Please model this.
Amino acid sequence: MPRDRLVGLVFDDRYLTHNTGLDLIEDRSHYPFAEPVAHPSSPALVGRAKHLMDLFGIADRMRRIDPVCASDEQLTAYHTPEYLARVTEIAQTDGGDTGSGAPIGRGGDRVARLAAGGTLAAVDAVMSGAVDAAYALVRPPGHHAMADEGMGFCVFNNVVVAARQAQRVHGVDRVLILDWDVHHGNGTQAAFWADPSVLFISLDQDELYPPGWGAADQVGIEAGEGFTVNVPLPAGTGNRSYAEAYAKIVVPIARQFDPDLVIVSAGQDASVFDPLARMSLTLASYRAMTEAMMTVAAECCQGRLVVTQEGGYAPQYAPHCSATVAQALVGIRPGDEWIADPYGELAETQPASAQLGLDAVTAIERVIAVQQRYWAI
Ligand SMILES: [Zn+2]
Model:
């Protein structure tokens, strides 16, 4: 008899020690306040997400997976040895920037390796069959990190390294990486730009961050042409239009690609309360987006799904979004209830939850026109 579905959870208190503090900003003249304003990538965000998973009994239903410290060999599947050496060097000082807006403090190389290693451990657990799916609640995030520099709070590219691990160690052929973080996963796109074995699909706010990345006509090159799918959506896009993008673009292309493993770059910063973006998603979308990927994974690859944490900066709301993703992964039992939206009707009755925005429709049609060259959509 098959055992019950098992979902793994990677979390480690050492993730909370990753320092993005204002003491790492050399020029503070832009912030002339007597009372310091915290860096948006606060340890409280993943800490609260884990707290909610405990509080709602979700973590109890997940199997704990310990992160490993990613090795040089694992990290150089993407990153250059020179970059690894630079990160180590910075971590031996009081801290500094690993590239462009990705500071670490003293000893920060170990935490960053533990974040990559958390995603690696989640992939290992799923591929070995120890669990069916897993949530890697890691910090720092990874999807902006390039081969030779950190970027946008990201030090090592956790999902890239994990996808390569799945291919090299576990013999996986095709990996789908879905990036629903509101910013573009430029580091991930760059890694697989010419590679048809990894399908990269990114939904994000058009022209937000980083500049120049994520346009619909960026589709990959050479053998990888058609295996990058960018879905840039206008500011204000909410639940209804995201659902449309999933139904018309994301899910049909994912099915046709027929992955052997699905990895989600799950940044919860397209939420309606996020201070770093202007989208309008509520908890309902985080549940729906997770369930859509569970369906694809169930149809294509025996449910093998790894969700890994990227951004998400709304102090109260982002942790609820992450906990909802975890709750969707473990599923609801009879008598259980879905996590209630802390903003209740205020979130669900906003127009973008129910109505298809005309500007979003135009953006979706544009992506379809580009991707129809490669996929039956
Ligand atoms: Zn983000």
